Amino acid sequence: MKILLPLIVYLFLLIDAFNAVTSSVRDLVQPLIEIKKNGTGNRLAVHAWPKVADLPAQHIPELLNAMNRANPLGDNWIRAAISKISDKSDSTLPIDEIIQFLNNYSNHADSRVEAFRIIQSGHPNRAELLIPGFLNDPVMALRREAVAKKLSAAKKETNKIERINLFNEVLNKAREVDQITEVSNALKEDGVIVNLKELMGFMVDWQAIGPFDNTERKGFNSIYPPEQKINYHASYRGKSDSVKWTPLSTEHELGLININEQYGEIKEVVAYAHTQFTFGENMNTQFRIGSKNAWKLWVNGELLFARDEYHRGKTRIDQFVIDGKLQKGTNDILIKVCQNEQTQSWTKQWEFNFRITDQEGSVIHSGN
Amino acid sequence: MIKILILAFALLSLNSLHANWLNFRGNQSNGFSASKSLIDLNADQEGAWRAKLPGRGLSSPIIVGDKVFLSASSGVKQETLHIFCFSCRTGLIIWERKFRATGRTICHEKTSVAASTMTSDGSKVVAQFSSNDVFCLTLSGDLIWLRGLTYDFPNAANGLGMSSSPLITKGVLLAQVENDAYSFSMGINLNNGETLWKKDRPRAANWSSPTLFGFGDNQAIILQSKEGISVVNPKSGKEIYSFSEGASTIPSSTPAGNILLVPSNGMTALKIYTDQEKAKQLWSDNKLGPGTGSPAVSKDRFLVINKANVLTCARIETGEILWRMRIKGPASGSPIATESHLYFFNEEGLGQVIEISDEKGEVVASVDLGETILCTPAISGNGLYVRSDNSLWKFTN
């Protein structure tokens, strides 16, 4: 007992000291976590950052953990501190703890990616060994590393049947647009056609109404009847004639909805496209829209985003990724797409594409 | 004659204080270097080097003391934002910081997320990216502050990408964020990144950069847009003077003493009195309009490259055209001038050195770098720095 007592006291002191350091790191980094928009919190962060960047490398896992609680601005503050710490102490990185952090799916995507980048930078060989394990990772940036490796191996396969099998495996795992299209193109060369519309979850069947007036681009902010109520049986006064809802769909490989096909190549006009999406639960999702026209997006009557810009570049897949929610049951999706007055050949497009994914980028299909 | 001497003295004195190259197109945003060296565009020359870059970019290098600072972007969506510090002497990386874009990174294939040139006041460096992420660091790579201006204002973005380079004066970082959807310029406290002022700007895509104008207490910032010119007090954002006859949204204005060369109606010269809040138009000539790049100043002359790759040399005070010659284009970057030479890199990577006088211009040297060059070179002391997507070069004499 005489021996045990001092040992117990020592252990308690050790735990106290550990807690003190941990809480002091937590206090130090707190201003970086509390950074908000418009420079709010900058004043405190400016004072905190040098102290955080001066921490020894053993605290990097705690800083990664702090990134779990920070917004993207706070992430960058912490990222810079980790970078500064890593500059000083490559050899003493707590690499096993960082790998443990990386492997824990409950950590935030950005913090896990940062953990991987630290490993890549300090211990590239160990990073390389970790990559195959990312094939089912919910974090797209990690998964794409494994997909790229598997794709590279598939391309080297000389047996056509084996190669097609490998490509199909890759396609099953790929989530990012460039990798999906790369595999699809490779399969096409082997005579296999992939239904990208279905695979990437483009929504291709809509009801449309228009054209409404967009003279002098005023239609963007004009509230036409479809913004107030969806009634497929109603007709309204359009730009020049009465307008009513009609089906609008596409066979385009990548789900591009060409509104010109519905109304002709006309200018200074507005059209609305509406569809319903049924889903089995309430869920935070991402609404992914591409359009080179000005547009607005409503989900269940809530305006999620509006973009008043015309023909600055082409329509792209996932051009805008907007956070939102699907509710259990039927969800109303309404898109307003505006065409302006420009007459150059590169301004004739009046189009959009649209799909819904979970927050990690995996496609969600209606009816699930 | 006296006016010319005063103008030349003002330009020389400002640029010869040190060999720093602190902004896009130099310390005075006018493409003039006081370097007396004739730089040899020979990659094998002793002291020349080439550093590999891991990311894309068409931002120009800046030089503070013996360090070169440069931005780049990498990743499938160009979402990784790099800030590098290289040794001027060796080309080795002294430090690198990587951040993640918080704003949109989509842009035209020809440009990149690292399109804006960094700026410095000699003790801090600031990088702005097309995502409108802004980072202020010490020369040693310590983060001082950061902002995400598209994170703050989600519609502040251009589908083709943004490229306006920031500026520092009087402890204020000036960030120009102008596009079709949500346009503003912002004065940011250089010490802590807090907003000092925010000014609504014309809603229209704008890739031109702000320029410094005037000296000392009267130093102002020139904001340029399709509507014209706004001369702004950097501390308050208050407009001192405006010129509303329109201006280009790609090439930027060029200060030369108390004269501002504005890419408007070709080229228009304004004599601006920042202390008296007034200006006088000296001349305007549609034959002097620039292409993509901005003019460079040399002595009492300026040199401008038009869309047809014709280099024109003209007097700043009068607009008198002295000579013209065709150079090998196409041109995206701006030329840089010393008193005796003009340095210019075309999109195909051909560097051209043109000896300039009042009478003529003559190509005296060239180098083919074999890579696409869209940036404007920087000169510091006897070194010329230029970058592609893959490399940063230093040439010397």
Task: Provide structural commentary.
The complex is a heterodimer of chains A (368) and B (397). With 368 residues, chain A is α+β, with helices and mostly antiparallel strands. Chain A has helices at 4-33, 42-53, 60-67, 72-88, 95-103, 109-122, 124-130, 140-156, 160-173, 177-189, 196-199, 260-263; strands at residues 205-213, 235-237, 242-244, 246-249, 257-258, 269-279, 283-290, 294-299, 302-307, 320-326, 329-339, 351-358. Chain A is built from twelve helices and twelve strands. Chain A has a six-stranded antiparallel sheet with strand order 4-1-6-11-8-9, with no helix packed on it. A four-stranded antiparallel sheet of chain A has the order 5-12-7-10. A two-stranded antiparallel sheet of chain A has the order 2-3. In chain A, strand 2 and strand 3 form a beta hairpin. Chain A starts with a helix and ends in a 10-residue tail after the last strand. The mean pLDDT of chain A is 93. Chain B is mostly beta strands and 397 residues long. Chain B has a single domain (2-396), classed as 7 Propeller (Methylamine Dehydrogenase, Chain H). Chain B is 5% helix and 42% strand. In chain B, the strands form eight sheets. Chain B has a four-stranded antiparallel sheet with strand order 1-32-31-30, with no helix packed on it. A four-stranded antiparallel sheet of chain B has the order 2-3-4-5, with no helix packed on it. In chain B, strands 6-7-8-9 form a four-stranded antiparallel sheet. Chains A and B meet through helix 2, helix 4 and strand 9 of A and strand 5 and strand 9 of B.
